[in-house]
Amino acid sequence: MMMHDYHKPVMIREAIEGLHVVRGGTYVDATFGGGGHALAILERLGDGRLIAFDQDDDATRNIPEDQRLLFVNHNFRYMKNFLKLHGYIPVDGILADLGVSSHQFDQASRGFSARYDGPLDMRMNKMAKTTAREVLNTYEPDKLAGMFRMYGELRNAAGIASAIVGFREQQALETTGQLAGLLKPMAPRGRENKYLAQVFQAIRIEVNNELEALKELLLQSDKLLKAGGRLVVISYHSLEDRLVKHFMKTGNFEGKAKKNFYGSLLSPFRPVSKLQTAGKAELNTNPRARSAKLRIAEKNPFPNDNEPI
Questions:
Q1: Which residue, among 4, 40, 3, 48, has the nearest Cα to 22 in the 3D structure?
Q2: Which residues pair with 235 in a beta bridge?
Q3: Same domain, 179 and 42
Q4: What is the extent of the structural domain holding 53?
Q5: In a domain, 306, yes or no
Q6: Whole-angstrom distance, CA of residue 133 vs CA of residue 140
Q7: Beta strands in 64-137 (DSSP E)
Q8: How big is the CA angle at 248 (ends 259 and 154), to the nearest 5 degrees?
Q9: Do 178 and 236 fall into the same domain?
Q10: How far is CA 279 from CA 219, 231, 292, in A?
Q11: DSSP string, 169-217
């Protein structure tokens, strides 16, 4: 399988430019996937070092033969541990392209998409214990509704939960086809596909604990990046983007600005560009880029570096 068949990177030019790769530097690709971003970094890296993370075993097929690359087959939430183990702290830049790869979406056996009938799995890490099947067949109605309301931003979250509970009282939910068939009649007319995508998204986020993993990545980046180092994040969900936006601006997830005695903002990062989205040309060739949001920040030399001397 070629890398371009696995996943087409979104906003790769903007992301790599934002990372500001310097020759001889040390960088982290937190979401290796098909290796597109990694290859672009290696092209600019000279004799530097790239450490790439991906918890999906399928991504190992895409590892290029390059001695400058260290691939870690684990979730990026363990980034600090592995970088410390191999002596790569601090680093010059961290890049994370969040979300599901095209390869994962297009494999029916992974259960990520309502377009294919397959098992209710949705695990990014195939060794993880919790599957979508377990979530849908064991969660209490209130917990299901909360999941769909929070992660899917669905107005009829309670109705979805009720339909699932009613179904599983007769038989267990086993496949994506069963779930899609159950919920499609509840979708707004003409928006069935988007509706089901929101449902599946909510379940996937819950199964993989994605928001907590993102929080860990962001908090660790503060400790791992050297002064002037870049943090580049591409997100696909409003909740993800909100966490990234707040953290890059204020250093916390609530977006509450902390100021010093002189009224200067105290934050470990400073945004170096406005929110970026994919252009028309890219959207024409890669529709999945439509929901992508790119944010870039730079590590401050000191949290209060704006303080008057």
A1: 48
A2: 293
A3: no
A4: 3-102+214-299
A5: no
A6: 14
A7: 69-72, 91-97
A8: 115
A9: no
A10: 30, 21, 11
A11: TTS---BHHHHHHHHGGGSPTT-HHHHHHHHHHHHHHHHHTHHHHHHHH
Q: How many CA atoms lie within 13 A of 58 on its CB side?
A: 22
Select from 53, 61, 56 the least CA-distant residue to 27. Answer: 53
Assigned token pair, 68:
């400058």
Q: How far apart are CA 99 and CA 55, in angstroms?
A: 13
* Cα(124)–Cα(57) distance, integer angstroms: 9
Q: Return the closest-CA partner of residue 137 out of 151, 120, 154.
A: 120
Asked if 116 and 89 sit in the same domain, the reply is no
Q: Is the peptide bond before 185 cis (omega within 30 degrees of 0)?
A: no
- Per the domain annotation, does 244 fall within a domain? yes
Examine the domain organization and report whether 84 and 222 are in the same domain: yes
- Contact at 8 Å (CB) between 256 and 250? yes
Tokens of 182: 């159950």
CB neighbour burial string for 77-110, b if at least 16 within 10 angstroms, e if fewer? bbbbebbeeeebeebbbbbbbbbbbbbbbbbbeb
Total Cβ atoms within 10 A of residue 250 = 18
Q: How far is CA 30 from the centre of its chain?
A: 9
Distances (CA, A) of 98 to 199, 220, 291, 307: 18, 16, 11, 35
- The closest of 221, 217, 219, 214 to 240, measured between CA atoms, is 214
Mean pLDDT by 10 residues, the chain (309 residues): 60 96 98 94 97 93 95 95 96 93 79 92 93 98 98 96 98 97 95 95 96 97 96 96 96 87 81 94 87 96 49
Tell whether 307 is covered by a domain: no
Contact indicator for 71, 55 with CB cutoff of 8 Å? no
- Report the predicted TM-score, pTM, of the whole model to 2 decimal places: 0.90
Supply 263's token pair.
């009224």
Which conformational region is residue 203 in: left (phi greater than 0), alpha (psi within -120 to 50 degrees), or beta?
alpha
DSSP code for 276: B
